[in-house]
Each structure stands twice: as C-alpha cells, then as structure tokens.
Write a structure and sequence with these properties.
The complex is a heterodimer. Chain A is an alpha/beta fold. Chain A contains 10 helices and 17 strands. Chain A is elongated and about 85 Å long. Chain B has one domain: ABC transporter involved in vitamin B12 uptake, BtuC, CATH 1.10.3470. The longest helix of chain B has 36 residues. The two termini of chain B are 23 Å apart. Classes of the chains: A alpha/beta, B mainly alpha. Chains A and B meet through α2, β6, α3 and α4 of A and α10 and α11 of B.
C-alpha cells in the first residue's frame, strides 16, 4: 500500500464552464487548503457550484483561473496515469451495470497497476480483500452490484477507491441517495480511512448535520465567496446564516440546526430541574412558535417530576391553567388557547 | 476472490460452446439442396478417397466458403455489437439498429453507382474486393461518428436508438436516390451486390474478408481491459488513468472494420450484433470483456451457422434470406431486453 500523503492548496481559483468561446465563471477567488489526515466537507446549497469545483479539482475540467497544487505541484502538470495513482473519485451517478459482481467492480480499481489484460496478482487480490473488509462487505463478493441496496453499492464504490490505493479520495455527494443510518455510517467509514491511513478525503454535501458531525474542516460555498474552517468556527463566525437568503429558514447557532421562522405566539418559561424532560419540553414549545423569556413569560410550564405517568402543568398569564399527560396534548391545547386570546 | 465453482462453470461452458460450434460447422457443410453422404464430405475435405469432381467442387468451392463466411459474419457482428454496447453504455446498441450497416451500404453504393462502370465490372477481383470493403468501412465509420456526436449530448438510450434508425433510413434513402441517377450497367452491378448473402462470397473475396475480420477482432482484444472500465462511464474511466480518446479510436476502428467488412460482402445482416452479447452475458453472468469477447465469438459463430442451416431449409430446394432468419432469432431477444430493462440502466 502506498504511504504517500497529499496536501491540496487552492489559490485564487475560478471555476465555471465554457459557453461557446467564452468562459463563464461560477465562483471566483477560491482560496482553500486540505491536509493529509483530514476529512473535509464541501458544503453549499444546491446549484451553487460544488460539482463544478470538484470536477475542476479532479482535473475533469479546466480551471478558468488560478491554480490547484497537490503537494506544491500544479495539477495540470500531472499525467492522467500519474493522477490515477494519487486521486480516486466517486461520482453522484449510481452505477447499475448488470452482471457485474462486487469483487469485479473492486478489481477495476487495480486498473492503474495491472497488466494489459488486467490479470490480478496475489497482492492485488489481498488489497481487494482488505478493502471489502474495511467497508464491511464481507460475504458480498459475488453479489451483483445491481442487486444490492443503495448503501451497499455506495460502500462498494468507496471500496473501489481504496483498491485504487490513492492518498486522496474525492466524492461527489456520497450520501445523496442514502437513508439516515447509511449516511452516518458512510461518513464514519470515510472518517476511519482518514484517521487510520492518513488519507485526504474531500466530499461534497448539502447536509449540514452530516458535515458537522465528523469532519475536520468545511469548505463552505456561499453566494459571494468560499470560506473554510472547522465546523464550529464557521458556526461561531455566523457563516451558515449566509447559506440561505430566506425569510422562512434560519440557522440556530445554539443548536446547530436550521429552523423555520414562525410568527411568535408569545414567550415561555420552564419550571423544573434540567434534564431530558426540560429540554424536550422547550423544543416542543419552540416548535409551535413560542420564544424563551425567563423574566417575563406569557406561558409557564412545570415539567413532570415523575418519569412514570408524567404530568405537565401549564399556566397562561398566571390565570388560565390546565394539565396534560403528553407533549402532544400540551401543544395542541396551548395552541388553541393562545389563538383564542 | 472469485469462487472456484464459477471458474470451472465458465470452463465447462466454453468447452460445450466450442463443441457445438464445430458440430454446427460440419452440419452447415452437410446440409444443402443436394444431399451428400457424410462420409463423402469428410473424404472431400480431407482429400482422400474417390470423390467425383462435381461433388468435390460443391463442397470445397461452395459449402466450405459459405460455412467459413457464416463463422466470420457471426464473430464480426457480435464483437462489433458488444463493443458498441459498452462504449455507448446502451444494451440495445448494435451495428444494424444504429444504422452502421446502412452506412456501409451507402459507401458501397457511392463506389458502385457514383464512380466508373468500368470499375463495377472488376467488383469480383481482389482489388475490386478491397475497394468494396474499404468504402464499406468508411460508410460505417461516418454513421458511427454521427451517433457518437449525438450521444455526447443525449443520454437517453431510446432516443439514440431512434436517431440511429433515422441515420440508417437516411443512408438507405441516399442509396435509392443514387440508384435513380445511375445508368443501367452500374445499376446492374449494384443490384447484384444487394443480393449478396453468405453463399455469394467467392473465395477471392474470402481472401479479403478473413484478414479484415481477423484484424478487426485483434483490435478488440487490445481494448479488453479498457472496455471493462468504460462500463462505469467516462468519468470513472478517466479517474483510473484511461485515455478515453485512444480507446474510442480503437473501438471505432474495430467496429467499423468488422461491421463494414461483413456488409460489404454479405449485405446487411440484422440483430446478431445486439442479441449475441446478451446471450453471452446471460450464460456467463459477467460483464467482463475477458469473458464476453471469447463467448461472443463462439456464440456468434453458433447462431450464424444455425441461421444458415435454417435458411437452407434442409430437404428443400429453396433458401430463405439470411436476414429474415437472424431477425427471428434476434428480435425476441431484443424484446426480452426491453422488458427486463424497463428502467433502462446501463449494459
């Protein structure tokens, strides 16, 4: 296995597409870095140019301006064969070739190394075996790739990059078609390769929860610029707020979630000891449009003291009182009473 | 990595198919309007025993070249179909449906009808055969190039299929227009060409056909590894270090030569190119060209020999056009592919 490490330096890069004889830039002045041993998420809303940037980084299309350096060497100076041993790629397109077994797909990853007809050596076979193990597809070797689930196929595609044995892996929306469990598992898998083998892994996504959960760094594509930093840095700097110009959605920098803006129904305070009942009661009240205000609340909720058969007590304006046995009942009753006022 | 049972199954299949191909080759020589005893055939082929010169001539000058032509046509059309299906990532690609054969016909028509009638007389000489085959290659290559240009813009499989048919119709229309404007002697030699079939290939034409087909097949062996990677699409192929343009050039040259050569001497033969690679995939359950190329060679020969035997209608004096027989074999397979691929994914 190769022990090479790859750092990426992007300087004053402009990416875009060719229209007739002219280049149309989608994004200009991109300055970002990636180091080996880092899992990096390229985040941005749909259509902002993530794929274009990735295609430029993989050399599938030319940069309009600026330069991309791999270990201080310009990307353009690499031959396609050299690049195949440095960088591997997973596209958004789901591969559904018929009659192709998982191990056959993986063995294609040895393309840059095998002979004229693609004969696999002992070493090639052990690399393929190891990759199958690493992505958890043992027992799937002889399954056809059009007969396995989306999550399993995505694992196989990622295993193929491991077989290609490159220090840099670039993935375009690897979690796009997956369910929640598979999304986290795939990212966790990538995280492991980065940490255990010092690879540099860059993937694009528009899913913030995914990207803030395990990545070392985010390249955030905004309308006017691209910023980089640890997920927490970007949250603290208020960068995620700029992702959307929406009066319906905002980024809650306390919880790290996007939330819907609602017309305020009033203010609330919660009475009781901190814990899961306290927190989820707060979430429920926010959901129906109440805002926390400890000093001058319109609604006061007393959280249950017993976990078994819990009872919530509610006071509106210190006069209107009622009790509920579930948060569903509480929110429904509260919503109705507040709207009646 | 690969289960041993799979490998031994492949070996067995290859053995069986080879046996079947040899058997059908012999049967193809055996069946004809004149029933010749099996022993006499063997004697004629080996040159031993007392065989009358007429019988010997029927076997050596007619039936043997026809059987060899059937094998050449089966191999060439199947491999050109296989390569097109992979390069276009389209399970319904083939030299006939995408108009490649029609392109070859147009090439021949331009040569025969558009140029000297003097030349037309020499159509059955060696140099005439070479001229014929080269224009057929060029005609195939032009249509292939057009389809490639279109498929770069349109990804939809059925749309490309319809466009291929349109290209084919356009080529046929041009042939008709050329016929309208040509004089009698040119027309006569062209009509003779259009009646071409497996049986009409002379041994001097075989001297041109065999090396051409073998050359085309050799080119396809060169891209055996690249074709596998092309299955994943261009981006993946490129990211693994494949030079797309080189592979395309190789496959295009090979496909044009294979489809063009057969059309030049046997006329357009449909559906073998689409159907045979799918029979190979079905039998061997693989997408790898290391297996699919040899299996298509064998299955192509088998299907073509079988079609030829059927077209002889053993025991009767008349013969069916070979294109009708291959259509009967090929079309059910194409319908099966369409039904199976309702979602229309890749090969």
């Amino acid at each position: 296995m190769s022990n090479q490490k790859i750092d990426i330096t992007v300087r004053d890069l402009s990416v875009g597409y060719k229209k007739g004889k002219h280049f149309v830039a989608i994004k200009e002045g991109i300055n970002v870095n990636a180091h080996s041993g880092e899992l990096i998420a390229l985040v941005g809303s749909n259509g902002i140019g993530k794929s274009t940037l990735l295609r430029t980084l993989t050399g599938f299309q030319k940069a309009i301006n600026g330069e991309i350096l791999l270990n201080d060497r310009n990307l353009n100076s690499f031959s396609i064969k050299e690049l195949a041993r440095i960088m591997s790629f997973v596209s958004t397109e789901a591969i559904r070739v018929q009659n192709l077994r998982v191990w056959e797909l993986l063995s294609m990853g040895r393309y840059p190394y095998t002979n004229f007809v693609g004969t696999l050596t002992e070493e090639d076979n052990s690399i393929i075996k190891r990759a199958i193990q690493q992505v958890g597809l043992i027992g799937y070797e002889n399954r056809m790739i059009d007969r396995i689930s989306d999550g399993e196929r995505q694992r196989a595609m990622i295993a193929r990059t491991l077989v290609q044995d490159t220090p840099l892996i670039i993935l375009d929306e690897p979690t796009a078609f997956l369910d929640i469990r598979n999304r986290y598992e795939i990212i966790h898998l990538l995280h492991d390769f980065v940490k255990n083998e010092n690879k540099t892994v860059l993937f694009s996504t528009h899913d913030l929860n995914i990207s803030t959960s395990e990545v070392d760094k985010i390249w955030l594509m905004l309308d006017d610029k691209v910023v980089e930093g640890a997920p927490e840095d970007l949250i603290l700097a208020g960068n995620f707020d700029q992702m959307f110009h929406s009066d319906k959605v905002y980024f809650n920098s306390e919880s790290g979630d996007f939330m819907l803006r609602k017309n305020s129904l009033g203010s609330y305070a919660i009475n009781g000891s901190e814990g899961k009942f306290f927190n989820w009661t707060g979430r429920a009240l926010q959901r129906i449009g109440l805002v926390c205000d400890e000093n001058n609340p319109l609604v006061v909720v007393f959280v249950p003291t017993e976990e078994k058969d819990p009872v919530w007590k509610v006071e509106i304006d210190s006069s209107d009182k009622f009790e509920c046995t579930s948060l569903y009942g509480l929110t429904a009753e509260l919503y109705e009473r507040l709207n009646r006022r | 990595m690969q289960e041993n049972s799979l490998i031994s199954r492949n070996f067995m299949l290859f053995g069986l198919l080879s046996l079947l191909a040899v058997l059908l080759f012999v049967l193809d020589i055996f069946f004809g309007s004149l029933l010749i005893p099996f022993k006499t055939i063997l004697q004629a082929l080996s040159g031993s025993g007392n065989v009358s010169p007429e019988i010997k001539s029927i076997i050596i000058d007619f039936r043997l070249p026809k059987a060899i032509t059937a094998v050449m046509a089966g191999m060439a059309l199947s491999i050109s179909g296989l390569q097109m299906q992979t390069i276009f990532r389209n399970p319904l690609a083939g030299p006939y449906v995408l108009g490649i054969s029609a392109g070859a016909s147009l090439g021949v028509a331009i040569l025969v009808l558009g140029f000297s009638s003097v030349f037309a007389l020499g159509l059955f000489t060696i140099s005439g055969s070479w001229a014929l085959i080269v224009v057929a290659w060029l005609g195939s290559a032009i249509v292939l190039f057009l389809i490639l240009a279109v498929s770069a813009r349109i990804k939809d499989i059925l749309t490309i299929l319809i466009l291929g048919m349109l290209f084919g119709s356009a080529a046929s229309a041009l042939v008709n227009i050329l016929q309208y404007f040509s004089n009698e002697s040119m027309l006569k030699s062209f009509v003779i060409w259009t009646m071409g079939s497996l049986g009409s290939v002379t041994s001097s034409q075989l001297n041109v056909l065999i090396p051409s087909v073998l050359f085309g097949l050799a080119l396809s062996f060169l891209s055996v590894k690249s074709l596998d990677v092309m299955l994943l699409g261009e981006q993946y192929a490129k990211s693994m270090g494949l030079r797309i343009r080189n592979v395309r050039f190789l496959v295009f040259t090979s496909t044009s030569i294979l489809a063009g050569s057969i059309t030049a001497f046997c006329g357009p033969i449909g559906f073998i190119g689409i159907a045979v690679p799918h029979i190979g995939r079905l039998l061997f359950k693989t997408a790898r060209h290391k297996i699919l190329i040899p299996s298509s060679l064998l299955i192509g020969s088998i299907v073509m020999l079988l079609s030829d035997i059927v077209s002889q209608m053993p025991g009767s004096d008349s013969t069916l056009p070979i294109n009708s027989v291959t259509a009967m074999v090929g079309i059910p397979i194409i319908i099966w592919i369409i039904l199976k691929n309702r979602k229309f994914t890749s090969v």
